[in-house]
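Hello again,

I reread your note about wanting to compare the complex against the isolated chains. To keep things tidy I'm splitting this into two emails, and this first one only covers the full assembly. Below are the input lines as submitted, including protein chains and any nucleic acid or small-molecule components. They are followed by the predicted structure of everything together. The single-chain runs will come separately.
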Amino acid sequence: MTAIREPKISIDGVTLVHVNEERRQEHVALENVSLDIGEGEFLCVVGPSGCGKSTLLSAIAGFMKPWTGEIRMNGKAIEGPGADRGVVFQEYALLPWKTVLGNVAIGLKYRRVPKAERERLAREYLAMARLTDAADRFPHELSGGMRQRVAVARTLANTPEIMMMDEPFAAVDAQTRLTLQEELLRVWDEHPITVLFVTHSVEEAVFLADRVAVLTPGPGRLREIVDIGIPREIRQWDSISTDARFLELRDHVMKLVRDPGR
Amino acid sequence: MTVQAQPSSKMPRFDPVVIAGLVPFLAVLAAWALAPTLSDIPAYKLPPPEKVWSAFTDMTLDGSLPSEIWASLRRLAAGYVLGNLTAIPLGLAIALNRAVAETMTPVLSFFQSIAGIAWVPLAIIWFGVGQGSVLFVIANTIFFSSIYSTVIGVQLIPRVLYRAALCHGASRLDVVTSVVISGALVQILVGLRTSMAYGWRALVAAEMIAGTNGIGYMTLEAVQWYQTEIVILGMILIGILWLALDFLIFRPIEHVTVRRWGLLA
Ligand SMILES: Nc1ncnc2c1ncn2[C@@H]1O[C@H](COP(=O)(O)OP(=O)(O)OP(=O)(O)O)[C@@H](O)[C@H]1O
Ligand SMILES: [Mg+2]
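Full-complex prediction:
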């Protein structure tokens, strides 16, 4: 029962090709994909390794141009990277030479927000990510889970129009992963924003998403989009893991991923 | 309440690392002192430590040694600043711009192979014996040692850091200041350090051939009068001055930068 929303991002017949100039090779990563991401929607993309999920994210972020088709945000074609599309990378990509506070404030600094104001905002987002005590530490002094929360706080503090996350929780242990997923939903509740979330994990996708887009093995095509009509109130692992709708949707998506059809 | 062990930096008086590092020096010194009793090396070939020590005190008191040291250090500083001020910006430009890299790489490789001492003959013809030649040779050595560290430093920065900067609103200049320079700093510091080491060695060698004063000049000059104790004194000072420079300049810089950021083990 997803409400019809204005598309924030329109992916329109997009084929993405990696070109290796040295070896003069072309590799089709994603083929003829059309997909809209609604304003304020939490969309998860799942698919087997190598099906082009990260490539799709790079293209929306503006790091590569579509071979065919077009990607638009708010109806305008994407020209290159920009602060309106923040990315949370799997490798965290924090600056080792900046403190946690400095990292969270970096986008605001790039956007010339005055120092006092950006520190105030950064501290606010650090508090949201429960990292207040870590403000003056350097990234190498943090656990993987904490680093990932810093990366999320950095992107949210920059108030982009869409936050894109590429397997952000893949590198943390299973227990931390569950906590981070719940935390992400709590934060997303406080800061409603359009989210594109890429993951290997079907459970994670169904737990988090409004809709799950399933891609076929590479070159990726859009297999199906599954609506996840589970109310937000019960999206905690304690209550959801025995929920019949959750189990059913999870099995359905799992089937789509494992048996990609034609 | 448990008492936490104090970090070792707060009590440097009996640092075991320093003591361990001194052991080989003491062993060499002992062997040197005992050498005349164990073998029949004549004193003009290997003067005993006390003779070197008295050369040191004599030359310090009459002011000749400090002035030679000062001449060398001043020259090193000038060559160092000159070499690095050209090498680091050019290294950054090469690493950041393909056209610059494609233009400069072959010519730099060519000149790198003949960097340093091989320039002495031409330097003497161009600048004459003395200050100018020595400065030219060490600036040249330092330049080629530093430039590659800078280039490698930039190349080692993970690409994802550029992407992270760009998707949070960084301009090209922001990328250079917030990602490239800090990111390359580990290698730039390595370059600053090794370039000083190479520069120091080149300085001593250049002073021997083309100098009119300085530690290297003093060391070779002493040979003419068979003042072996001054030769040995010169060699010891070359080593000690290097250790002091390294300890006083580079350790503290590392401590507040790359070590603090977890980029060095
Ligand atoms: N820079 C590149 N040059 C050439 N081919 C690439 C490049 N990056 C990715 N590819 C190829 O494009 C395809 C899609 O890669 P992509 O990284 O988007 O997959 P993915 O779905 O994110 O996989 P994973 O789940 O393992 O992260 C793969 O076949 C990969 O080998
Ligand atoms: Mg990927």
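For quick reference: The longest helix of chain A spans residues 174-190.

B.
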